[in-house]
């Protein structure tokens, strides 16, 4: 059972998301929060597997709350809910360790898939969100793609295989099955990849993979 804390300052949005999550027998919403500070407090109280959180919230915004949660409860994954027009927020959220990015207007099945993915240790980006983030980053620095290709080229062939599957959103267990490796071996590869790419988490590794052309996000 995946334990979830749901944080959004809009009660109607929160109720709608709660209804979607309650329909999944594998998800248990253990607490709700109406602002970022409450989200941190509920996380520390309940130690959920995943926090589903709006980016724009009062008292403490989603970005600051995500940073606190990742520091205080690193085993808890964070899924950020966003709307179009917030590309800058999403890019900043990458740096604080959020593991998933989803659109409030997206398919409910995508929300459930994202929660399951992040709970399983994988990264999950809504394809449309990922495409916009990458477009924004590339617009700022035309050399990013070349730099990313250079970083990926420095990996071993097996590390590149693992990176492609990380970028595709697969969990360690799924990668292990795909490559016929043990899950422990995959964890070792992922740790080495993060270090060699100079990134903090799987989402950032997926972004590098996308920029290098090793994986694509199709909307």
UniProtKB/TrEMBL annotation:
Residues 3-119 form the Response regulatory domain. InterPro entries: CheY-like_superfamily, NreC/VraR/RcsB-like_REC, Sig_transdc_resp-reg_C-effctor, Sig_transdc_resp-reg_receiver, Tscrpt_reg_LuxR_C, WalR-like. It comes from the Bacteria. GO terms for molecular function: DNA binding. Residues 148-213 form the HTH luxR-type domain. It holds the Pfam family Response_reg. The modification 4-aspartylphosphate is found at residue 54. GO terms for biological process: phosphorelay signal transduction system; regulation of DNA-templated transcription. This is Response regulator transcription factor. PANTHER family: TRANSCRIPTIONAL REGULATORY PROTEIN NARL-RELATED (PTHR43214:SF24), TWO-COMPONENT RESPONSE REGULATOR (PTHR43214). Coiled coil: none annotated.
């Amino acid at each position: 059972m995946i334990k979830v804390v749901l944080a959004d300052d809009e009660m109607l949005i929160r109720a709608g998301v709660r209804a979607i999550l309650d329909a999944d027998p594998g998800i248990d919403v253990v607490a709700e929060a109406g602002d970022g500070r409450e989200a941190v407090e509920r996380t520390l109280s309940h130690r959920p597997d995943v926090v589903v959180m709006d980016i724009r919230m009062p008292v403490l915004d989603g970005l600051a709350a995500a940073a606190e949660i990742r520091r205080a409860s690193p085993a808890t994954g964070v899924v950020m809910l966003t709307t179009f027009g917030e590309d800058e927020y999403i890019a900043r959220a990458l740096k604080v360790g959020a593991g998933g990015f989803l659109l409030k207007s997206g398919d409910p099945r995508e929300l459930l898939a994202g929660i399951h993915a992040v709970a399983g240790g994988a990264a999950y980006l809504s394809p449309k969100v990922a495409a916009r983030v990458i477009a924004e980053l590339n617009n700022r620095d035309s050399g990013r793609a070349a730099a990313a290709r250079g970083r990926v080229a420095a990996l071993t062939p097996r590390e590149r295989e693992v990176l492609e599957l990380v970028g595709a959103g697969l969990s360690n267990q799924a990668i292990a099955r795909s490559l016929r490796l043990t899950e422990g071996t995959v964890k070792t590869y992922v740790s080495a990849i993060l270090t060699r790419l100079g990134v903090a988490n799987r989402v950032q590794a997926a972004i590098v993979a996308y920029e290098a052309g090793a994986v694509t996000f199709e909307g």
